[in-house]
């Protein structure tokens, strides 16, 4: 098996939780994909970095991140996967709101002004979280190359409607789930 198949197995074994839940979008579902069980796992996290880099290999960007908390471990996995390659990456964190103290930055990490960046998310149903990150990145002067998620729950249309390329490593069908 390759990285993509190995990561899918981690997702189906560790992250898919069955039971009634309310998603961040406000929608209800009979199952939840808790990707932090994978993105923060010692064996799975390196796979996340490699799979997401491969998914977006033809896009030009030099920094990766998104809205905290779902995007943070993905960005770090991609940063580490890129270390020592001919295409290193910086990572950044987009806060849900600007800080009221210190430097009062909404985007933490290396400056994204004037840079091509990739916005990531673990899973997305409506696209609201990742589009919030995109808005903050654009306000900071970054050029967003596209949006990539590990699992798409249906956000693709909303992200593409916002004028952004969109890719997902896995669909619900890939995981044996129905919407």
UniProtKB/TrEMBL annotation:
<keyword id="KW-0328">Glycosyltransferase</keyword>
<dbReference type="InterPro" id="IPR004467">
    <property type="entry name" value="Or_phspho_trans_dom"/>
</dbReference>
<comment type="subunit">
    <text>Homodimer.</text>
</comment>
<protein>
    <recommendedName>
        <fullName>Orotate phosphoribosyltransferase</fullName>
        <ecNumber>2.4.2.10</ecNumber>
    </recommendedName>
</protein>
<dbReference type="InterPro" id="IPR023031">
    <property type="entry name" value="OPRT"/>
</dbReference>
<dbReference type="GO" id="GO:0004588">
    <property type="term" value="F:orotate phosphoribosyltransferase activity"/>
</dbReference>
<feature type="binding site" description="in other chain">
    <location>
        <begin position="121"/>
        <end position="129"/>
    </location>
    <ligand>
        <name>5-phospho-alpha-D-ribose 1-diphosphate</name>
    </ligand>
</feature>
<feature type="binding site">
    <location>
        <position position="101"/>
    </location>
    <ligand>
        <name>5-phospho-alpha-D-ribose 1-diphosphate</name>
    </ligand>
</feature>
<feature type="binding site">
    <location>
        <position position="153"/>
    </location>
    <ligand>
        <name>orotate</name>
    </ligand>
</feature>
<comment type="pathway">
    <text>Pyrimidine metabolism; UMP biosynthesis via de novo pathway; UMP from orotate: step 1/2.</text>
</comment>
<feature type="binding site">
    <location>
        <position position="99"/>
    </location>
    <ligand>
        <name>5-phospho-alpha-D-ribose 1-diphosphate</name>
    </ligand>
</feature>
<feature type="binding site">
    <location>
        <position position="95"/>
    </location>
    <ligand>
        <name>5-phospho-alpha-D-ribose 1-diphosphate</name>
    </ligand>
</feature>
<dbReference type="InterPro" id="IPR029057">
    <property type="entry name" value="PRTase-like"/>
</dbReference>
<feature type="domain" description="Phosphoribosyltransferase">
    <location>
        <begin position="49"/>
        <end position="157"/>
    </location>
</feature>
<feature type="binding site" description="in other chain">
    <location>
        <position position="96"/>
    </location>
    <ligand>
        <name>5-phospho-alpha-D-ribose 1-diphosphate</name>
    </ligand>
</feature>
<keyword id="KW-0665">Pyrimidine biosynthesis</keyword>
<keyword id="KW-0808">Transferase</keyword>
<feature type="binding site">
    <location>
        <position position="125"/>
    </location>
    <ligand>
        <name>orotate</name>
    </ligand>
</feature>
<comment type="similarity">
    <text>Belongs to the purine/pyrimidine phosphoribosyltransferase family. PyrE subfamily.</text>
</comment>
<dbReference type="Pfam" id="PF00156">
    <property type="entry name" value="Pribosyltran"/>
</dbReference>
<comment type="function">
    <text>Catalyzes the transfer of a ribosyl phosphate group from 5-phosphoribose 1-diphosphate to orotate, leading to the formation of orotidine monophosphate (OMP).</text>
</comment>
<dbReference type="InterPro" id="IPR000836">
    <property type="entry name" value="PRTase_dom"/>
</dbReference>
<keyword id="KW-0460">Magnesium</keyword>
